[in-house]
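If your schedule permits, I should be very grateful for your opinion on a structural question. What I wish to show you is a protein chain and, alongside it, a tokenised description of its three-dimensional fold. Would you kindly read the sequence against the tokens and tell me how you understand this chain to fold? Here, with my thanks, is the record as I have it:

===
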Amino acid sequence: MTATDNRSTQGDVVVGVDTSPSGRGALTWAARYARVTGQRLRALHVFSYRAAGGVVWTAGGLPPSLPAGGSDELRDLAEGEIRSVFESLAPEPQWRLEFWGGSIGPTLIDQARGADLLVIGTREHTGIDRLLSGSVSHYCLSHAKCPTVAVPAVPVTVGNSKPNVVQASAG
């Protein structure tokens, strides 16, 4: 897909997806909603990377290791992971998974134009991460022209211990 494609989003549920816990939670929430309402789901992954101090940042966080081939291999790696996440939901025939390049927030807003609902995940960004990537969820909540659901990542506790794992709330 390219930013010049004009596809009708009328009646769609549009969800921003990545491999983070909140991105997976947003996709799961949106899939459940689309199934219950009978609406078409458009899952969008926006590939955006920027170099900062020699480190490559992606929409789903840092990959475990950077491929030697550069951004093309990095994009292929990310797309494979996202496809696996999408396919794990047993998508309905009319559901679509799309890959876009660009600024994440503006691309999601543009692609959700005319949609019935935009679903996004939220993460707690602090320090340098917030400075480098900003808040996609804040951008979308501030600029969307359709109803928007933000699915938070919530801490998971084991017994009486402090939270040590972050998992997305999917429902």
